[in-house]
Structure formats: structure tokens, C-alpha cells
Specification:
alpha/beta, TIM Barrel, 7-stranded mixed beta sheet, globular
Length: 430
């Protein structure tokens, strides 16, 4: 880990030395239509000027400039790169019927599969992701840094380093034979009591985590875990969130159950993941505190269909049935109440690359297409604290762009079929 950081520092130093004499790299994109997620409108026939990976100007198309190449996306609607706030790319192998799957692969295998997942995710139009937990502690830090160094193709990543969870809880490897204990690197965030919660936060942030993921309630896809029940006390959640804040970071909370959602909000969580069983009081509390709800309302259908076909544990399928429709109706209520909502899919529960399917679900359950796009651009960027950097195709922002055929402001499902992707000024797909 220290070697990776040393290389990163050396690279930055080299850039600083050569930058003054370097020629700015300029390129252009000719967009047939350009979506502004803030206004929920599209402007026709735009020219986007890109300098050193950032958008320098947006203007009407009047012809090809002479000072740089022009990417011809005049047939397409162009919008800012998409942001998914709930992924598990670095775990690599994704969800399976075997709860102990994470223990059956070494770190090398997991890293290679994580790199494959990152590449697929980027090429599906998601240029930034928040990776919200790995079983093998800090493996997500390695993937994030490899992408930042250019060694691996993938989206910009922010990572949690692991889970702050009770022993045997929703963030632990479960379903092991009696007496078997996972290796220490799989228990980096296990805690019992506020003091251990604080220590785990220091350990994860010290290892390179960008934020802290709290497992406040039980999980759907964990053996012996009840999604509606608190697994950490409010005091433990608060201790972790307070410690993260002291260290200049923030915490998010996995919370299905209504009481867990409210406890996590009161304790200081920035976003609530899943929020499947949230009640009216919880929605009102989230709105009042300015907390984002990050609700994965697509993947319940995948679990029901493919989990059944592939023989996933009956407990998983039962808990999925008990939470899927309830969560979707809660999402509808949250939209109607004006609560802040982001785009998070639980990518890796279903095959990575299919996350844009969730847009249609968000529209079905109460959002307009423009609201769904904002959830995956400007709202997601704000939840990350990166609203001046990403989420808009406007001057000063990173040149992260996605091109699609059709008009996603009319039919949001066109985002499932990406025609082109640019990250930081570089075309990566097709």
C-alpha cells in the first residue's frame, strides 16, 4: 500500500515539474443534443471544447475548429457521465448461491476480476462510482489506485475499505461451517462497542478509505441476518460517524429496517443505502436532515429471477420477496415527499454493466426521466461532495460524457444502450 502511494506521489511530482512547459491538449465533441441535468433540458447541436481532460467551453456548433480533433457525436444525445453510488466492483466475483464464495479466491484472482468489472462498468456509461464495501479489507483501495494510475481501465472510484459490522453480521462472510473463522483481512471492520467502532474507522481511513460504510441493520444476502433488525447500536453508529468526521471523512449506512434508518440518520450518516422498510417518519427525518436515500429498486427482480434459477439460498429469496415491493413503494413516497434521492444499484448483485436498467424503475415509481438523470449526475455528485467537479457537462467540469441514441428525457431506457463514453477527455467506448 505504501508503495502505491509513493508511486502516486512521484507521478504527481513529475507532472508538476513538466507542466509549465507542456502544451495543453485540446479536443472537441460535436453533440447532436446536450442534456443539462440541472434544468432538465437539452440544447441542440453543441460544440464542447475540452482542454486537458476538462470542459473549457460549450457553444453552438458553427463548424469544425482547426486546433484539435473533433469527436463526431452529432447523431447522439450527450449527457454527463453517469454516477452509481452503490457498487461492489472490487469484490470481483459478484453474488452467487454460495455465501462463502469470497473465501474461495485469493487476492490475485479477486483483483483481476475486480479490474474486469471496473472496465465493464465504465463502458456501460458510469464514469464515477462509489464502491461501498468489500469482504477482503482494503482490496478496493488497490483497485481505485490502479485506475487512478492508469494501470486499469475503470471509472473514478471512491471506496470504503470494508464494512463496519458486528461479528457475523450483514457485512461479514456468513454461512461458514461451525467453528470456521474467516482470516483477519476479512474481519477488518468487525466491532463490538463504540470504542471498537472508532478504532475500526481509524484503521480503514488509515488504510486509504474515502468514507466509512456502516452495516446498521441486517442484510438480505447474508445467512442468519434480519434486514429489519438493528445490528449495531445507535451509540456504535454515532461513534463511527463522529470518528469519520473528525478525520475529515463521512459515513454512509446500510439500513433496511425503519428503526435502523432513523438511528443512522440521527447518528450522522450522509446517505442511507437500501432504505427498504423506511417509514413515513424516516422519510420526513431524511428530508429534514438533508440526508440522501440511495435505494436500489432494480435488483430485486434480478434476485427473484436468476437467484431462483441458480439455486440461491431460500433465505435470500424469502428476504428479497419481503423487501422488494415494500422498498419500491417507499421510493414512490420519498419522491412525492421531496426527499433527496440518488442513483445506487448494488452492482455485482446482478452482473455489472446492467445498472442503467434502474432508470426505468425510478420513472415507473414516481420520478420523471429528468429527475432520474439528476439522481445519477448532479445529486450523486453532491452526495459525494464533488458537485464542482463532476455531474454536469459545463465549463470547469471533468470531461466525462456519455452518448446515446434517442432522447432519455422522453424514454430514459435509452441509457441502457450506450453508444459512446468519455472519461476525463478520453474516449473509452465504443
Amino acid at each position: 500500500m505504501g508503495g502505491t502511494r509513493a508511486l502516486a506521489g512521484l507521478a504527481l511530482a513529475i507532472v508538476a515539474l513538466v507542466a509549465p512547459g507542456a502544451q495543453a491538449e485540446t479536443s472537441y465533441v460535436h453533440a447532436g443534443r446536450l442534456i443539462d441535468p440541472v434544468g432538465g433540458e437539452a440544447q441542440p447541436d453543441r460544440l464542447i471544447r475540452i482542454v486537458d481532460g476538462r470542459i473549457a467551453a460549450v457553444s453552438a456548433w458553427t463548424g469544425a475548429p482547426a486546433d484539435g480533433p473533433v469527436i463526431d457525436w452529432s447523431r447522439y444525445t450527450v449527457l454527463p457521465g453517469l454516477i452509481d453510488l452503490h457498487t461492489h466492483l472490487a469484490d470481483g466475483f459478484g453474488q452467487s448461491r454460495d455465501p462463502t464464495e469470497p473465501l474461495k479466491h485469493g487476492p490475485g484472482e479477486t483483483a483481476l476480476k475486480g479490474a474486469e468489472a471496473a472496465r465493464i462498468m465504465l463502458r456501460s456509461g458510469f464514469t464515477t462510482v462509489r464502491d461501498v464495501g468489500v469482504y477482503r479489507g482494503l482490496s478496493d483501495v488497490v483497485l481505485r489506485d490502479a485506475i487512478a494510475q492508469g494501470w486499469v481501465e475503470g471509472p473514478r472510484m471512491l471506496v470504503s475499505g470494508g464494512y463496519v459490522t458486528k461479528p457475523g453480521g450483514g457485512g461479514a462472510v456468513t454461512g461458514l461451517p461451525k467453528g470456521q473463522v474467516p482470516p483477519p483481512e476479512f474481519r477488518i471492520g468487525e466491532v463490538s462497542g463504540p470504542a471498537q467502532a472508532r478504532a475500526a474507522v481509524r484503521r480503514l481511513i488509515g488504510g486509504g478509505a474515502d468514507f466509512i460504510k456502516i452495516i446498521a441493520t441486517g442484510a438480505v444476502l447474508a445467512v442468519g441476518s434480519d434486514p429489519g433488525a438493528l445490528e449495531l447500536s445507535e451509540a456504535e453508529i454515532k461513534a463511527a460517524c463522529d470518528e469519520a468526521r473528525t478525520l475529515g471523512k463521512y459515513c454512509i449506512a446500510h439500513a433496511h429496517g425503519a428503526e435502523g434508518v432513523k438511528a443512522a440518520i440521527r447518528a450522522g450518516a450522509r446517505t442511507i443505502e437500501h432504505a427498504s422498510l423506511i417509514d413515513d417518519e424516516g422519510i420526513a427525518l431524511a428530508k429534514a436532515r438533508g440526508v440522501w436515500l440511495d435505494m436500489d429498486i432494480y435488483n430485486g427482480d434480478w434476485i427473484a429471477e436468476f437467484g431462483t434459477k441458480e439455486g440461491w439460498p431460500a433465505e435470500y429469496l424469502r428476504k428479497n420477496r419481503e423487501t422488494t415491493d415494500v422498498q419500491r413503494e417507499a421510493f414512490r413516497k420519498a419522491v412525492a415527499a421531496g426527499a433527496k434521492l440518488t442513483f445506487g444499484t448494488d452492482a455485482a448483485v446482478y452482473p455489472v454493466g446492467l445498472g442503467a436498467r434502474q432508470f426505468a424503475y425510478m420513472v415507473r415509481y414516481g420520478m420523471t426521466p429528468a429527475q432520474a438523470i439528476r439522481a445519477a449526475t448532479t445529486e450523486a455528485a453532491a452526495a459525494l461532495g464533488l458537485e464542482p467537479e463532476i455531474g454536469q457537462a459545463a465549463p470547469g467540469f471533468a470531461a466525462d460524457l456519455v452518448a446515446v441514441e434517442g432522447d432519455p428525457l422522453v424514454d430514459v431506457s435509452v441509457l441502457e444502450r450506450v453508444a459512446g463514453v468519455m472519461k476525463a477527455g478520453r474516449v473509452v467506448a465504443p
